[in-house]
Amino acid sequence: MTDRALTPGALPGDDVAELRLRDVAHAHRPINYGGWILWVVTILITVDFLWVIAHNKNFEWSVVAQWFTAESIMRGLSVTLGLTVVAMLIGVVIGLFLAIARLSETKLLVALSSIYIWFFRGTPLLVQLIFWYNLSTLFPVISIGVPFGPELARWNTNDLITPLTAAIAGLALNEAAYMAEIIRGGLLSVDPGQVETTQAFGMTRGRALRRIIIPQAMRSIIPPTGNQLISMIKATSLVSVIAMGDLLYSVQAVYNRTFEVIPLLMVAVLWYLLITSILNVGQSFIERYYARGEKGSSTKARRATDDDVISDAIHMGDAR
Question: Which residue from 54, 62, 122, 186 has the highest number of Cβ atoms inside 10 Å of its Cβ?
Fold first, then answer.
């Protein structure tokens, strides 16, 4: 750093003080030899691990490359992605209504939403999928009508519950229970004064939620929702037990014929890792977008604290 950069005429007084303090801190900072050694050891172990995997003939990487973009695998991948999108969208919509119901002043809505969340969070997703797939065992016919009155419509359960509808119902309804708690937590994170302000302006509850509360709650909702989306990608592998042709089911169908279990499983693993990596990148961009205002305010608060520290340091130096 040149003398010109520290000249009071070149930079504002606060910036000069901050730069001086940073120079002092850097000058007296000891070299972290332990950190460098840890980095070197970690890199060596990682490179050795990758080398062993790459040269292990039991993985049969040539078979992995052969099946990685095979037509049957790509069909299974498209089913996995489609299930994820549909189930996630339905889960978010139902979860939003459940979260609003839990925050409602109507005790019946609070009780019904709480029971829903308790049941679907308290039972394994695999059990729920199998239950939906075998729903016809309990209810051979599904009908709609007036309670204790005439029947308006009826369907054969086997015609309604296919592997696709069972997979969507199981994944979406289970996801709704988790999204309800995520959204409820986000709504509770909004300053209560915002709600009072909307009431003072005569806004209806629905309009206040759409225009004021939900946009602010998105900062708290987005990160766990991204985690849920990644979990949903992996949870779709469970639908293979109900003969749904997802990515894992397609892989199993291949290695049941060829007996190449490990390389085909590696195909599935690599696709799951690729998809979740892309989703992680997208999640980070969305988080930064919604954290802009919060980051600015926290930076200002931190800057104010730093200014106090810098000022004290300068005064101590002048006193000496």
Answer: 186
